[in-house]
Amino acid sequence: MSLTFREQDIVYADLDPREGVLLHLSTKHYFKLNASSQILWKALRLGQSTLEASQELCRHFDVSPEEALQDALTFVEKLRREHFIDAPSVLPTSSLAEAKASKAFASGGNKSLSNPG
User: Fold this and answer.
1) Do β-strands 4-5 and 85-86 pair in parallel, antiparallel, or remain unpaired?
2) pLDDT digits (tens, 9 = 90+) for 45-89
3) Any residues with CB less than 8 A from the CB of 95 and at least 6 apart, and which?
């Protein structure tokens, strides 16, 4: 699946090697990224597929390929729902219900797109 980033709306900055921040200029919301989310963000921005990005997680963390892929899919879904990318949903309906219930989808200006891993 090819991801289309909303370039005009995105500002990203590394805060340190384990933390970054995304700012959505249109909504004025900003999002904290933990170390695993940073790896996924950078891999996806380089044009890697979700699968390839999940493999980057496996190289940096002690995580199974299945868990890394689920984390990557969840991250992409969060990016989609928060309007950082234009793409169809990547998660099955049951995973979407879980994602909606997570605090990452709470309303407000400061959100976390961090992955649990």
Assistant:
1) antiparallel
2) 898 999 999 999 999 999 999 999 999 999 999 988 888 887 666
3) 70, 73, 74, 77
